[in-house]
Design goal:
The protein is α/β, with parallel strands linked by helices. Helix content is 45%, strand content 12%. Strands 2-3-4-5-6-8 form a 6-stranded parallel sheet. It has a 3-stranded parallel sheet with strand order 10-1-11, covered by helices on one side. Strand 3, helix 5 and strand 4 form a beta-alpha-beta unit. The structure holds S-adenosyl-L-homocysteine and iron/sulfur cluster.
Length: 351
Amino acid sequence: MSDLREIAEKLIVEHTLSREEWQRLLEHRDREITERIRSAARRETDRIFGRQVFVRGLIEFTNICKKDCYYCGIRKSNSCVERYRLTEEEILSCCKDGYEAGLRTFVLQGGEDGYFTEERICSLVSEIHTKYQDCAITLSVGEWKRESYERFFSAGAERFLLRQETANAEHYGKLHPANQPYETRMECLRNLKDIGYQTGCGFLVGSPYQTTDCIIEDLLFLERFRPQMVGIGPFLPAKNTPFEAKKAGSSELTLFLLSAIRLSLPEVLLPATTALGTARSDGRLQGLLHGANVIMPNLSPTRVRDKYALYDNKVHSGNEAAEHLEALRKELEKEEFTVAISRGDSPGFAK
Ligand code: SAH
Ligand code: SF4
């Protein structure tokens, strides 16, 4: 027991643990240790970012995808999905609404949709970049060759989100078909970081076949890779996928891992994700109380929100941007958080 407490103190003070220490902590933590880590993680977040929460406007611009990840509701083989793709005008209109509501970061996320070629993505990014020069553009559009990532970067995208999903190669193979190799994902991540993107990675918590060892590998990977952002959320089953009958990941474990990641990488940008907000109604607020400091309100037009169903019962407020942000601001104020109107860069990339 005291051994466990020493491990927790080491994480809090030294920001690093060995494989064996992570294992002891994950397998034997009790409520007291869990709370000790949560409060230390929140304190660390306050020290670096204060009570400010960064907000990013999420634009889910297409649910068409040529990939076939077993866990994902919009995978290619799911013929029950009603597919959509926003036009460039619609995407720009989302940015306009978001800008007027006070957002200064736009996240363009979507399936790997062949319509959106390198040229089309570049022209979209450069149009947004020209119109909203005080905003940051984040892309979350999957795997591309290095040259494409370089062109997106030159067009004005400064940040990229690409979760590794699991850092364990064998586990990765159980979540994806053989033509989506683990090595490609890892190479993409290395290229993004090397090009100079503020890079976000992350993993699914409680995905099928995940073991404690897999989670430890993810934590050790994060420590080595040193991303600027980390997105984690519980795996939630999606109907008409190979994993539709699998058990959902634990939100309690997700919250613990948010605290653990905050302590391991104190300056990292850490969103309280929609999946966490779907798994439990107070998920996003709890995420912040466990060391998250980013929230990504949905800017997609309300008519398409149900169609971007990565998993079942995905929450969305149904509100337009301004209304939604106002409600969020009020909710966060109750816990003495403030919503920052700023780009919210990673500390090492401050503009
Ligand atoms: N196509 C891009 C971006 C869209 S998917 C990509 O794959 O990178 C964004 C994230 O949604 C994925 O990285 C994955 O971690 C998450 N996701 C997909 N299906 C999910 C599910 N069933 N439960 C929880 N998260 C899921
Ligand atoms: Fe496509 Fe991303 Fe879903 Fe995989 S997780 S099927 S790449 S949208």
